[in-house]
């Protein structure tokens, strides 16, 4: 053994196994590599002025401070609590786990070539860069701003909050097993995957492309805009406490709930079923189609700035105002309830079949489109606004044929349907009405019209025979032709057809006289009423069925197809033509 009560200078290499005690110091000089393997107890400190000093025992350097101006290699395990200073570097080698617990100030950097190096003090690794080619475990709190590179991994353990603020390049991934790991630089976690089993806080901006898994949660803090672009599977939920969190992958926020108290921007497509709560706003951006299928309760606004947003749950859009600058589809069987819905110029808001909307205000701006899909189960009104309705742009109606769903279809199905109801007078009107989705057989002789009613508080859709279009001031021109092109199709007219020549618009393009009926196409037209039109009947295709002796009015009949008289009484209309009578 060596009792050192002054200074022991070792200018040599090799393995020095003697135990060193005493109050003195040890100096390693020269450029060789020297290993101290004893359990030493000297108290005067250690100075490394040249070469490499290897400690293969956690007690090899006694209990004093270490001044490292060359290379200190720690090839051992245990708790090394000596304070390390100087301009030199520290190397952790071997496969054991070593803890540095001192407040160290060395500046030459740290290399981890094997095993695990645990820093239980935020200053344990000095101020230099860290080259991590094995495992760096940070069991501490505070701000760790050393740059970390290498092929190794980083583990955050313990219950404290640790901030990584460096631009790190390590590739081995990050594991958060306890406490909170704060990344205040978008590159703080290197380029590897993150296994988050506690809390990952991202207080930074930029594009964070690392994949995040684990059972832990993710918190977005600070006022910057951060993009998550990875395919993430973490299950602990996401909290947005500040700034903007952009998800440009539908799986970017894992599978847990989202508490949004700032701004969540969804720049992606697919089905996003995470439940969203909080006071923050949601923005749909980009050109893709995104479906919100969760039962969401967030109270902030929803903005659709690009692409298409589809809501397949009645609570998918929360309870706040909606500003639609692109395309929005409400497609759930039930009532959506929001505060304000505004469709900006160029935007299209679509109400799916079976869906209704309860809003405080409804605003359709110029060059916007409101599309309403009808079916046989649609309840009216489709939209109810408790405060104000302002209309402009285009109203596009689809599925009118689904409303006329009896077999056979008949005039009994024609009715007035309330699309929009307001508790106050409706301001403005739609500039254009388009109708799609009606059977071609019906579209020929059914007129569909939209208008604000006499109270000024309801916008109604009316379906009626084109025969009476001019009388009723419909948008289409009146005519008396019933063209049923489908041989298996039929339509029953149960209302009285009377002369309307006195109400025809002189500007009408049809040239109809207002008193005559023409049956065209291979389908079947059924006249059930006691009709009074006087201009005659022409059957040029299909079958015309009269179930009333006066069904064909008082004029002559030109039959070039099939006339079926399914009635009794005296039929005194003159019949001519090449067709048959049955």
UniProtKB/TrEMBL annotation:
Gene3D superfamilies in UniProt: 2.160.20.20
UniProt entry keywords in alphabetical sequence: Signal
Pfam families: PATR
Coiled coil feature spans: none
Top-rank taxon: Bacteria
Name of the protein in its database record: AIDA autotransporter-like protein ShdA
């Amino acid at each position: 053994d060596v009792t050192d009560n002054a200074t022991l200078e070792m200018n040599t290499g090799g393995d020095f196994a003697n135990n060193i005690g005493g109050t003195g110091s040890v100096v390693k000089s020269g450029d060789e590599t020297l290993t101290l393997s004893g359990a030493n107890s000297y108290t005067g400190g250690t100075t490394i002025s040249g070469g490499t000093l290897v400690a293969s025992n956690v007690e090899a350097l006694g209990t004093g401070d270490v001044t490292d101006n060359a290379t200190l290699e720690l090839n051992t395990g245990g708790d090394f609590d000596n304070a390390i200073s100087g301009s030199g570097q520290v190397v952790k080698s071997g496969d054991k786990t070593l803890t540095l617990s001192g407040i160290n100030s060395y500046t030459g950097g740290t290399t981890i070539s094997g095993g695990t190096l645990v820093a239980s003090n935020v200053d344990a690794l000095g101020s230099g860069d860290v080259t991590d080619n094995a495992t760096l475990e940070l069991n501490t709190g505070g701000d760790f701003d050393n740059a970390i590179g290498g092929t190794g991994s980083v583990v955050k353990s313990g219950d404290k909050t640790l901030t990584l603020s460096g631009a790190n390049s390590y590739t081995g991934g990050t594991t958060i097993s306890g406490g909170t790991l704060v990344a205040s630089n978008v590159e703080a976690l290197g380029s590897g995957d993150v296994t988050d089993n506690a809390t990952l806080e991202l207080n930074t901006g930029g594009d964070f492309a690392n994949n995040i898994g684990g059972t832990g949660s993710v918190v977005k803090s600070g006022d910057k805009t951060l993009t998550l672009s990875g395919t993430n599977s973490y299950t602990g939920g996401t909290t947005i406490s500040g700034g903007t969190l952009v998800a440009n992958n539908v799986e970017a926020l894992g599978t847990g709930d989202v508490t949004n108290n700032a701004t969540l921007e969804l720049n992606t497509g697919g089905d996003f079923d995470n439940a969203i709560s909080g006071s923050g706003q949601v923005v749909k951006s980009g050109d893709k189609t995104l479906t919100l299928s969760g039962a969401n309760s967030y109270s902030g606004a929803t903005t659709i700035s690009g692409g298409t947003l589809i809501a397949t749950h009645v609570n998918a859009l929360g309870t706040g105002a909606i500003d639609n600058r692109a395309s929005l589809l409400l497609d759930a069987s039930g009532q959506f309830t929001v505060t304000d819905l505004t469709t900006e110029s160029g935007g299209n808001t679509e109400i799916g079949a079976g869906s209704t909307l309860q809003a405080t205000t409804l605003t359709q701006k110029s060059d916007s489109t409101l599309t309403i899909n009808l079916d046989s189960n649609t309840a009216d009104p489709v939209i109810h606004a408790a405060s104000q309705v302002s209309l402009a742009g285009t109203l596009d109606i689809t599925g009118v044929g689904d409303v006329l769903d009896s077999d056979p279809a008949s005039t009994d199905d024609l009715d007035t349907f309330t699309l929009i109801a307001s508790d106050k007078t409706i301001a403005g009107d739609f500039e254009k009405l388009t109708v799609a989705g009606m059977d071609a057989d019906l579209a020929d002789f059914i007129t569909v019209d939209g208008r604000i009613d006499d109270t000024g508080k309801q916008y109604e859709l009316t379906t009626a025979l084109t025969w009476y279009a001019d009388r009723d001031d419909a948008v289409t021109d009146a005519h008396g032709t019933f063209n049923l092109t489908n041989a298996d199709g039929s339509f029953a007219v149960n209302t009285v057809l009377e002369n309307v020549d006195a109400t025809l618009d002189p500007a009408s393009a049809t040239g109809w006289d207002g008193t005559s009926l023409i049956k065209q196409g291979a389908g079947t037209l059924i006249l059930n009423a006691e009709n009074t039109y006087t201009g005659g009947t022409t059957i040029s295709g299909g079958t015309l069925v009269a179930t009333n002796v006066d069904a064909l009015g008082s004029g002559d009949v030109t039959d070039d197809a099939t006339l079926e008289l399914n009635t009794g009484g005296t039929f005194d209309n003159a019949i001519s033509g090449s067709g048959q009578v049955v």
